[in-house]
Amino acid sequence: MKEFKGTKGEWKVIHEINVTSKSNRAICACGSYDSREKSSQDINKANAKLISAAPKLLEALIKMVEWHGKYED
After folding, report:
1. Contacts by 49-52 with C-beta closer than 8 Å and gap 24+?
2. I need a surface site. Which of 20, 24, 32, 55 has the fewest CB within 10 A?
3. Model confidence at 8, in pLDDT bands (50, 70, 90)?
């Protein structure tokens, strides 16, 4: 399996809608909706949380694929 070539390490949400790496490298800013609307703010926050979980989700997926490969008949 190929190694992840993106920004390694823990990603975190700052200021509710910005995602950075552990070294404070900007990953993304979630704010494409009208930030004056409450529902848009909630969507932006949820998107930032989902994006910040991407490295852990990728790690889990890689482990699952490797496990599946060991037990596939």
Report:
1. 49/13, 51/11, 51/19, 51/27, 52/11, 52/12, 52/13, 52/19, 52/27
2. 24
3. confident
